[in-house]
Each structure stands twice: as C-alpha cells, then as structure tokens.
Amino acid sequence: MNNYGRKITEKFQEPAFFKKAIIVIFSACWIYWIYLIFASKMWIIADAIEYQRIGLRLHKYGWLYLFETGPHREPFYFAIIAASKHLSEIFHISHEIIQKFIQVIFLFASQAFLLLLLGKLRIRNVIKAAVILYFGFSPALVNAAVSSFSEIAVFPFVLAIVFFGALSWRAIYNSNIAKTISLALCTSLSFVFAVFAKGIFQYIYPFFLIPCVFILVYSIIRKRKAVFWRAISYMLIVFLVFNLFTVSYKLMNKKYNGHFEFTNRYTLLLFGEAVQRTDPLTVKGLLSHLTYIPGRGVCRLFFSEEDCEACGWLGGWHRQTSLLPGLLEGVPESKVKQKTLSLTFQRISKNPLQYGLFTTIEALRMPFWESTKVGFVQYPLWIAKIFSSKWFRYPLRLIISILTYISLVGLMIFLFRNRNEFFHPDKEERFMICLAIFLLIFSYTGLYSLFSIVIRYSLPIASLYLMCIGLFIDRKIYKDDF
Q1: Contact, 371 vs 140, CB < 8 A?
Q2: What's the N-to-C CA distance of the chain in angstroms?
Q3: Is residue 258 left, alpha or beta, with left meaning phi > 0 and alpha meaning psi from -120 to 50?
Q4: Of 26, 75, 210, 443, whose CB count within 10 A is highest?
Q5: Can you tell me whether residue 377 is helix, strand or coil?
Q6: Measuring CA to CA, how many Å separate 445 from each of 183, 284, 421, 452?
Q7: Exposure of 216 by Cβ count < 10 A (0-12 exposed, 13-18 middle, 19+ buried)?
Q8: How far apart are CA 173 and CA 216, in angstroms?
Q9: Which run of H or E residues covers position 345?
Q10: What whole-number distance in Å separates Cα of residue 239 and Cα of residue 182?
C-alpha cells in the first residue's frame, strides 16, 4: 500500500473521524432511500399480486381468514402489508408509501447490524465504511426495499442469527448458564422471525445446532461438566422455543384448513425441478444450463429464448403443471403432499447423478446476487437509464460475483486452517462469526438449489457475502493473517 492509502487508513482508524464518516454514509443512504420511497413505484405483478391480495385481506378480515383459506406463503410479509394498510387509513397516506418506508427500516436495521458484525471481524474502518456504503446503494438490495416481495423481511434476522449464533457457541464454553439461556432465546427467536418471513429457515436451524453437538462431544472427552450442561440447555431451549412457534402455526393451519403445513407450493416446485433435472440429457441442454449460471442474459448470447427459458423456473413450472395433475388424479386431498413427494423421489432415483449435477449447477447461481435488473420496480428515468446501461450493469454484476466467489473460497480456507480455534473461542472471536456465516450461506444455498434460484432468493444472504468480501479485501490489502 502506498503512503496515500496509509494516510486514509490511519485517518479512518481515528474513532472521531470514523464516527463522522458513518453518520455521513447513513445520512446519504437515507436521503437516497427516502427519494426512492416517493419517486419509485412498485410493480404489482407475478408473486407480488398474491402478497398484496392476501396482505390486504388479512387487514380486512383478520388472521382467521389467513388460516381458513390457507395454507399460504409465509405470514410475516402479509402482516407488513396489512400494517401498512392500517397505517395508511390512519394517516391518509398511500399504503404503498408506508410499506416502502417500513421496508427501508428493515434495510437500515440490516445495515446497522452489518456494521456491528464487521467490527467484530476486526475489519479496518475504511473497508467497513466502504462495505456499509455499498450495502446502502446496492441496486439489488435497495430494489428489495422498494418492491413488494418478502425477501426484505428476513434481511436483519439473517444477521441476527449470525451474531447470536457466534456469541452462543462462545458462551457455552466460557460463560454462565444465565447468559447461555438468554442467547439461546435470542438465537431461537431470530430463527422464528426468519422462518415466518422465509419458510426455508425451518430446515436451516438444525445446521446451527451442529457446532453444539461438537461442543457436547468435546465436553464429554475433556470431562467439562459445566460446558456439557450449558450445551444441553442451549440445544434444548432452541429446539423448544423454535418449535413452539412453528408447530403452533402448523397446528392452526391443520385446525382451519386441514393441512399441517407452514407454507404451500414447495412440493409442487420440487417435483417440477426433479422432472426437469432428470429428463434425458443432451449436450445442448447441459451447456445452456452452464451458461445460465451467470444469468439469462449470458445464456441468450449462445442459445435461443426457448432453450434458456427451460433452464429457469419456467422449465420446472411447465413440467409440474403439465404432468402432475394427471399423476394426482383420484388422490385424496389429504394424500396429495405425500404422493407428490413420492413421485419426486421416484423421479430422482431414476437418475440421481444427473439430478445431483444439475442441483450443483443451480447452487452456483446463488453468488450472482447483484443486479440492476431484479425488476418489479419502476424507477425514476435517470436511475433507470443508469441501471440499463451495459457499461454499468455488466461490470458491476461481474465484479461483485467474482469477489463473492473468491471471498467464499477464502472463507473456507480460513476455517480449515484455523479449525482448532473452534475449541479455543476465547482466542478468536471472528472464527465463530465466520463459522456462522459459512453454515448459513451453504445450508441456505444447498436447500434453495433443490428449487430454481432467481436473483431475489439470494438477497437475504447478500449481507453475508459482503462481510466475506470485506474480510477478504482487508486481508489482501493489509497482509494480515486471515
């Protein structure tokens, strides 16, 4: 690093200067967000139609309507829309404006949480400031805050899971039982909110208990009774609190609509993808899927619109809608889910290697999270022109995606090299944070790869990608041990 770079770094390391810089960044972000709240318009199309329809009916008819007509999608986002409508009637303001304002608060809460975690990772202030600034102006992340889709509702809870998860594992080793219990409650409630915003987190939370199992085994080997009982208490509380909320919600669905489910549709989507991924393989089909990894635009450079459409969610959707009704004919409503899953596993079992190949290809799409073309928002003309410029959108997407991939590799190398630090958490706090990031990113990606991944699905973990990028850049510039 040259002298000028050192001077900038040293200046940002001054607490007073850094505090002022963060205030300026937050202020600039809020000015931009407030401008977009009033200057942009939500496009209520595709899934947004259902979100708005159910959310407004929830406001009008109450929660019993949601259960009696369900199961529906996750309820938390419906509640945000219902609250927006309620506030709009009080203040006589468009409920869309209020909804965007609430969503911007979620964005800001995530940004503040991100700053906290970057500090715990001991990243230098100048890079922390750059990451926070980018988060606030990221086209994809800001799009989530001004469109009518549920991903924004889970943003802060993903970071809360990382924060409380890392603190919990350390507390089990070297804190008292009271702190362990309080952190177990915080972790489980973070997961509860995440599940009520994005149902897939009900299958992710068990991954966060894996480190506790290792701690448990370690405590038995080393005969550390206090650690053993804290680990047991932690896992028990997380399990009980998490299931208290999620199972209760499923029981309400069972009572009022006959389905012991949290959400709908997932079995249908699994079947469609299983059919698409086990269809007879052709060289053209494989290559089109590979070129689709960076996005549909890249695929269209080499293949037809029809070929590229088959690589996305429409491919699985068409197969599901054309095949499944006939296969389910005569099946009682109560057996539809079980039969659909059975058909899905039958299909996968016919060609498991090919299914695994295409599932891996699908997972590789997740790090391509940045985009100026997420859609579903009408921007002011000058922003729309910038976002449409190939000189802006393509380099931005390419650079962020490459940095994401490289930083993920760096994260895995760090965890492997420092794996013994897991048993000495008092020495290295950021190891536990990196472990939490790793577990969340890879469990989330692995589960979503069973479906067709669209850009907005990757946005809840984009903040984790940015932390990885910040840590990677910090290490490379300042030559620290990662």
Answers
A1: yes
A2: 18
A3: left
A4: 75
A5: strand
A6: 26, 26, 25, 11
A7: buried
A8: 10
A9: helix 336-350
A10: 14
Confidence of residue 325 (pLDDT cuts 50, 70, 90): confident
- Locate 120 and state its tokens: 């715990």
Note the helical H segments in 198-335.
210-221, 225-257, 266-278, 283-292, 296-300, 305-309, 313-327
Joined together, the tokens standing for residue 204 give: 């992710």
User: What is the token pair recorded at 252?
Assistant: 């309400």
pLDDT at 270: 92
User: Do 65 and 46 meet the contact criterion of CB atoms below 8 Å apart?
Assistant: no
Q: Which of 330, 200, 338 is nearest to 260 (CA)?
A: 338
Q: Report the alpha-carbon distance of residue 50 to residue 72 in Å, rounded.
A: 9
Q: Which residues pair with 377 in a beta bridge?
A: 42
Q: Return mean pLDDT, the chain.
A: 93
Percent of the chain exceeding pLDDT 70 equals: 98
| Encoded tokens for 154 | 């889970």
Helix, strand, coil abundance in the chain, percent, nearest 5: 80, 0, 20
pTM of the model: 0.95
Please choose, from the candidates 420, 417, 460, the residue with its C-alpha nearest in 3D space to the C-alpha of residue 441: 460
Is the dihedral angle over the CA atoms 431, 432, 436, 437 positive or is it negative?
Answer: negative
Buried-state track 12-28, b at ≥16 Cβ within 10 A, e below 16:
beeeeebeebbeebbee
User: What are the Cα distances from residue 345, in Å, to 39, 296, 352, 353, 446?
Assistant: 48, 28, 10, 13, 17
Q: How many helices (H) and strands (E) does the chain have?
A: 24, 2
Model pLDDT, residue 481:
46
CA–CA gap between residue 29 and residue 38 (Å, rounded): 15
What is the 8-class DSSP label of residue 417? H
Please identify which residue in the block is written with the tokens 């910040």.
470
**268, two tokens:** 């249908």
Closest CA to 201 of 448, 422, 367: 448
Burial class (CB in 10 A: 0-12, 13-18, 19+), 357: middle
The C-alpha torsion from 95 through 98 and 99 to 102, rounded to 10°, is -160
List 42's β-bridge partners, or say none. 377
Asked if 97 and 218 count as a contact pair (C-beta separation under 8 A), the reply is: no
Q: Mind listing the pLDDT tens digit for each residue in 431-476?
A: 999 999 999 999 999 999 999 999 999 999 999 999 999 999 998 8
As a whole-number percent, the residues of the chain with pLDDT over 90 amount to 80
Beta strand extents in 310-399 (DSSP E only): 377-378
Residue 41 belongs to what H/E stretch?
strand 41-42
Give me the residue label for tokens 């054309």.
322
How high is the pLDDT of residue 213? 92
The single residue listed with the structure tokens 């009696």 is 68
